[in-house]
Records
---
Amino acid sequence: MALIVHKYGGTSMGSVERIKNVARRVAKWHKAGHKMVVVPSAMSGETNRLLGLAREITANPDPRELDMIASTGEQVSVGLLAIALHAEGLEAVSYAGWQVPIKTDSAFTKARISDIDGTRVLADLDAGKVVVITGFQGVDPEGHIATLGRGGSDTSAVAIAAAMKADECLIYTDVDGVYTTDPRVVEEARRLDRVTFEEMLEMASLGSKVLQIRSVEFAGKYQVKTRVLSSLTDPMIPLETEMRSGTLITFEEDETMEKAVISGIAFQRDEARIAVMGVPDKPGIAYQILGPVADANIDIDMIIQNTSVDGKTDFTFTVGRGDYARAMEILTNQVKEHVKAEQVRGDPKVSKVSVVGVGMRSHVGIASTMFRTLAEEGINIQMISTSEIKISVLIDEKYTELAVRALHKVFELDRA
Amino acid sequence: MALIVHKYGGTSMGSVERIKNVARRVAKWHKAGHKMVVVPSAMSGETNRLLGLAREITANPDPRELDMIASTGEQVSVGLLAIALHAEGLEAVSYAGWQVPIKTDSAFTKARISDIDGTRVLADLDAGKVVVITGFQGVDPEGHIATLGRGGSDTSAVAIAAAMKADECLIYTDVDGVYTTDPRVVEEARRLDRVTFEEMLEMASLGSKVLQIRSVEFAGKYQVKTRVLSSLTDPMIPLETEMRSGTLITFEEDETMEKAVISGIAFQRDEARIAVMGVPDKPGIAYQILGPVADANIDIDMIIQNTSVDGKTDFTFTVGRGDYARAMEILTNQVKEHVKAEQVRGDPKVSKVSVVGVGMRSHVGIASTMFRTLAEEGINIQMISTSEIKISVLIDEKYTELAVRALHKVFELDRA
């Protein structure tokens, strides 16, 4: 008998019929003897509907009140799912985040979980109940409701699994696992049976949208065995089949994994590149350039500073395309003169392509294979950034698919 | 500077535009120097939508989970109203019942408020904030959300006003006050400027739907000055005009009130009458007859037991028409033989018409005027029940309008 956490996305909770299917699936697990905690998202479209009402009133609604409003979507979901579980003959009880409690900081609309008290939930599980807990939200030290931001229910589920010392956290979604790359771009993309936590972390940060990155961080920090699998299967498929489906995020590099040098090709379109050129190279210059951009709440991704020539340097970085115009405006009007830059140049149409794999650590030549492959396709590399287990390059956006397909092929990701 | 509680119904909160109007009205009061607490209902239709989802899953959803679901409607309303108040340039904060906290018992879907801790709300008011609190709900001793039942937001508002020792509680609704009778039945019906708490209590219990009866009980118990007024007026009408509009529920019978013998004619259609006839008259017989009916959760209204003749008596009572068939079935199949009744007879088409007024206490002849008037119209009285300030009669339903109009005229309710 294990303690299992299930998480279901908004599509899986999208209608009364689908909620009943979720209940059937959970009942199957419960009847097999497992203690079950379920974390559903809001019904698909509901969070957007609620935020839309708030934005109809004013363009910049107060974040604290937005969380008050948006958190109700999950509260409706847990109540409906509990009722559907009753209809399956199970004892079930639902809790909002504040009732558990799931404690967060006070960064409304993007709060972070600080602590979860599992006492109440454990008592219910010991009494044979299925416990249904709202995703996406918790309660701050002042007793205000705070939400975790988009995709936050993944994080809720993994954090609850960590707090309850669950045996496994199953993230049910509308894809059947983590792929070597996006199957819509590369037909031969293959589902991975396993992926390490570090690879998953890189994939999430590099634009693979399967899991919210903070949920992966939680899984890593607390070593939560996490599986991504499909909610679109027949809810009554045999438990043994379901337990081995999808992609498992692991914490040990086992034998089979060492054989795979590269696990996947991630990519992120909608990037923009900005270069501040001919800047006097002196201490504090990076902060003087990036500080005003960060102050405007613009996320900065890759950063490169060239070796200085004649006491001057070029400073290049990327931002999301949606922030491009605002970042250019800040740099041109506020920063350029202040740092005595010669010019500010930008390209709003770039994308980032990355190869990811723990095998990289013990293999040389990955970078050279990657660069050679792109060169053979005539693709110019604009920026490079690397970590222990990934190499990312910035390229012209129009070559994204070509690059991804070529790299998928050269690293033999289509072969099991 | 006074402390004022406003309550707005679902129609007043029915759209973003209407919510903005509520905010404008509240802002007008706040700018006049008053400390403001606002209790909005869910947007019209929302509670029904939510309960509908639950009933799509199963015919008899768990009440605890229903409350989890239904309470979200008001939570959305308070967030939206707080945002609309911000847009009016006010500081405002919203709270769900559990955040205040508003403490209730655990009778889910029909909970009663046991205590309200006003500390947090008072601190916000002292800081110049408008405080927006969910109606309809609170939190039980175990930390579960419990709702107060249909119309519960009236009760929330009056209870909050009592706990905060508010100077006045204004119930904004889609009628402009309490009338001498239903204006849809009697064209000459007149709005009352004042009505005593006791009269209001009788009116509410006799079918006048302006306020939930428990809100009137609260107003009486804690002597909350409560005013019923229209939310359909221009939100920017002068405060002085608005403060004198609607109907005030008072606790003292002032001079003007003594002059009015009768304040209103209330009526309740959809009643049904049941008679258990020829029952041996012995101790405990009332309980033996009504116990099984009450056990089936059927509310019993008027009850009459005739003087016994030859050791036998007739036992007559009324129930809501929706419960008539079930009550008849219980009496015929379970009770009749057990209590050795000769027969069980029923009439599902009766209505109750009542005259209400504190002036009745010091005036004789009200009952005879009422009975004479009905006799002159050829209306047979089936049952009579009286209290200190009301006389109710049961009549054939088809005479309802005729009776109400005749009584409205004879007691001169059309004259100010």
---
Amino acid sequence: MDFSSFLTSLATSFIIFVVLVLVFTWLSRKHSNDVIYYPNRILKGLDAWEGGRRTRNPFAWIGEALRSTEEDIISMAGVDTAVYFVFLSSVSEDFYSYVVFVNGLWFYHWQLFFSCKLKTTTFVEFSHAKSPRLWAFLVATYWVSFVAYFILWKAYKHSSKLRASALAEPKLKPEQFSVLVRDIPSVPHGQTRKEQVDSYFKELHPETFYKSMVITDNRKVNKIWEELEGYRKKLARAEAVFEASKTIEKPDGTKPTTRTGCLGLLGRKVDTIDYCNEKIKELGMKLDAEQMITIKERQLDSALVFFNKKTAAASASQSIHAQNVDTWTVMEAPEPRQLIWSNLSIKFYERQIRKYVIYVIVFLAIVFYMIPITFISAFTTLDNLKKLLPFSKPIVEKDAVKTVLEAYLPQIALIVFLALLPMFLMFLSKTEGIVSESHAVRAASGKYFYFIVFNVFLGVTVGGTLFSSLKTIEKNPNQIVPMLGRNLPKNATFFLTYVALRFFVGYGLELSRLVPLIIYHLKKMFMCKTENEVREAWAPGDLGFATRVPNDMLIITIVLCYSVIAPMIIPFGVIYFGLGWLVLRNQALKVYVPSYESYGRMWPHMHTRILAALVLYQITMIGYFSVKEFYYTPFLLPLPILSLFFAYVCNKHFYLGFRFTPLEVACKSSKEIPNMESVFQAYIPPSLSMDKFEDADQFEDAQSQTS
Amino acid sequence: MDFSSFLTSLATSFIIFVVLVLVFTWLSRKHSNDVIYYPNRILKGLDAWEGGRRTRNPFAWIGEALRSTEEDIISMAGVDTAVYFVFLSSVSEDFYSYVVFVNGLWFYHWQLFFSCKLKTTTFVEFSHAKSPRLWAFLVATYWVSFVAYFILWKAYKHSSKLRASALAEPKLKPEQFSVLVRDIPSVPHGQTRKEQVDSYFKELHPETFYKSMVITDNRKVNKIWEELEGYRKKLARAEAVFEASKTIEKPDGTKPTTRTGCLGLLGRKVDTIDYCNEKIKELGMKLDAEQMITIKERQLDSALVFFNKKTAAASASQSIHAQNVDTWTVMEAPEPRQLIWSNLSIKFYERQIRKYVIYVIVFLAIVFYMIPITFISAFTTLDNLKKLLPFSKPIVEKDAVKTVLEAYLPQIALIVFLALLPMFLMFLSKTEGIVSESHAVRAASGKYFYFIVFNVFLGVTVGGTLFSSLKTIEKNPNQIVPMLGRNLPKNATFFLTYVALRFFVGYGLELSRLVPLIIYHLKKMFMCKTENEVREAWAPGDLGFATRVPNDMLIITIVLCYSVIAPMIIPFGVIYFGLGWLVLRNQALKVYVPSYESYGRMWPHMHTRILAALVLYQITMIGYFSVKEFYYTPFLLPLPILSLFFAYVCNKHFYLGFRFTPLEVACKSSKEIPNMESVFQAYIPPSLSMDKFEDADQFEDAQSQTS
């Protein structure tokens, strides 16, 4: 890719971004789009617009985002999101501190650049072999690393504080009073599962045990409940349609009809409202019966145990209960909304086996996915394209087409390619047997990170020249580090464009929300009949950390690894994270609704991966300098070791405070015993909820038993 | 080494053993030796001899050892010793099960052996290359592994049961009510350390916190106390001497005198009794003052915290207390007698650094110790000796000398060599900052195990031919496994003699206790004047697991690795562990007094190392078969993986139950609150003990504060 196509790419991206921002400014002022641009405020019962609609400056959102405090974020979007902003701001701060330092070193080079003497691919690369100035770059590598340590430490400390103060809040959080017990041994003769659990915990925690809830196999009852809900929706819809058909000409309206067969297309034609009412009644009775059966007979070997004190629950969740450690395993209970019920019944060793099997699958996926990516990056040079697809020659040789293709083809191929993956990884993570949504998100994010770094970063870097250098690796496996150092500079422009594309187009689309807007309007126009259906059509979803975080990590890896070789990438990095901070601040305050709260447990995960990127950077630097035959390259060797040591200290100092709830933190909030019944009720899944029955007491007895 | 020297070695060892047993039978019947042969019974206040002295069969000890139950062992020698016997009996059981199976396969070979057709070094080695009978040996390898899994699992289960029932005993154990807190942050302004600890724990454990004891720097007070004790002993001794000098001729006796200068050799001559009395008075006052200062001013950042419930202490010791995990670190308190006070003040990161530094030192010691061992095993062939020390030629060429030298020289060199090491390793382990004696023993034992396996087993096996094969390794590092397989058979006779030497001479000496007996009688005759001094002279010590366990592990490694190649070693293994069981059973019941009780925490340590030996065996087998160019060698590859999997399952199922006290176990014993003051008192070190003061209350207040 030459210099003009690089500029074209940048310019196009920037224009798209400007257009998207203008579109956002225009569309977000329309009242009918409020549910797309302000759903979080609406769901929280706030006014969509703080000021009046007319008086507002079109760019007011920027000011609002900048003025918003951490407390605003926590109250609007939770601690996880606040921690994510700690991450964004520290990374951009981090990169910003490099701009001054590293670009200062490049002064001479910039001069050349601005005097247009350098327009070839080398403009981003420092090519003075054995230059004495390499010393300065060695110092820069140290500077980059130490600033990273300093900022990471500060960020970890801050996240830890955020987590602790959120956990110590006096607001009732059911998960703080509960622990999850798995792998309960088989029921002794003459006892029910319930009695077994109750007597076990009552003996070990006589003062603090409140109640237990045995986990049941809800698949069957969930199915009936979903069917019932389906008919309820259908009924509401039919009634809405019926109301709408009552025009002045036809005051009685037409009753909607449906067919009873497959998908409502075949079978007998019936009156929808009557049919639904009948079905609802029938299913309601079936549900009642099924609920009874589920509660009594489908008990699994897991339970939720409730304590009347936070410290008791925190300390119980950290203690070994049984002598055979693979029975009565205890852990902190996740929030009710993020508990994955279907995974609770998986047995101890099955979980372990699943975990390792999935690690192997992910490993294979990472390794063998490299093959198609390598092909793509080898294909998507225009010369190759012309050679392999000769019929395309007349098209791609037109200047305009050529420039655009050269600028975008590789990146778009990559992005599309990667869009298919997250769902697969999320599925794998849930299959591991993880019990909480947030943990599954972290697991998927971790897998995605490895995938993306190995395949996109290393794949493109090494793979772009893989066909030529495959033989070198085969002959000499310890040539990987120097090869990395050799190949890195060649791909600098590719990654520069990649980063630019991500922040201009990516954040432009994020801000303008064009896709959800279009989907919403289409749905509203053609499908939604009831208020509930409309509400579902604009449900904003959450920030989607499972893909957002690893993508950010990829950018960090790229920017770090190129920071010394091609320092032009650092401002790009600053823009990526700075713009990201601004746009996502707006989205977090006004759009997204978090679907769970894990009190910042994402941070250690991100911290480790930033450090991994840093180590990768330090290793590629060693490779880069040794390729330059720089005599003092060994001076860089302490850096990766230092990074590992830093990781170790951070881990020892902070990590367990994220893994568990320290007693100190659990103890801080009010010491009164809360309304324990509401804690218990919070965990009853909707399909088993009895609140519609008047004689709920009889089930209460089967489901739980007050101590 | 040829066959005749092997037989000579065996015969000599056996004769030594018989002589030692006879000596034991003769000496142990004398009343004056009771304190050497029955000290444990005497210290426990039991009659040394259960039956009358005269009526006893000289071999009654064998019957007594065989009849003794596990409960006897636990009551006489503690759970740790009982677990050690579980280890001995399972290993001998394990090996016994091989005898039948593997030796059956060798039937043909034995025939040859007994018909005296095989008298060369190869008699122990199966040398039919590519024989179809190798199949049978592959099956034998599987058999050996699976029997080992089965027996190890049973033993782990049994040890776990022993541990649980010992922990659940109603007898008061102060350590079950205490936790050790380290890394307490600096004292906030206006509080004492004591108040800080008390208020912190009282807040987190309001119902169960009883009291705390701040750890002090006792070096100075210990020194004074030791000096004081020294003078007390001297006084007692002088009085005894004075009493003894009152003969009928000289009814007033002569007062013993001493010199006040260096070592009692220089300086003014004074009356010892008066001098000591004066010194004791002086030091007593100094001690009082120092105790006050220590308690008030030399407080460190550690404390012992006492709870009034076992479950509270167990659960507190497993919970993260502070948000910064490297402060307020909490662990189970060790027994008062095994608490290493001087290590308590070492800071968190210093401990980590010390640990890794010591790992590096041990690693270096293991690797570079190999060099002398290699030299020894290369030197100690007679041919080398003759070549290198030509003057020794006339001596070593005499037949008798030659045979003895050939038989013993290498083994004795090795044994002497290894005797120097344990103290060094124990010193290193204590330097790590470990707080309990039992943990330090385990750490030293682990280091010794690695040392002994790498240096004795691998060193002799590979090193015996190292000079010839060093070049092969250098050229081809992945040739290590086949080389092991190739070299193993060559050293079979060496290890056969080594094992025989260990059990005949080792256990013979163990049983006869010749060395302690001689030392005791010498001391009694020339040095001991008072009852206390005599008591110190016969103090039996404990079983010394730090060296005993790794030596047993070495034997297991040797026997396993040779079990298929040279199955004659298996009966030797059975004898080693069988005889060991018998002899040590006697010693545990009558001689040794355990110096600590860790409730079987040695078992997981031994279990892991037995498995490591098993994996080493499986790998050498792969090497051995592949050297034989046996086509189906890959069939052995699943075995090491299976072993790792077995280790993983055992670890998950049992390990944490040994690492911590499970709540279930802590909860089992009586629920009454014990005499907490005695728990507290148990932890006061003798140098700080105030019981001789009448106004102890005033110190009580400084040292602790009742909640």
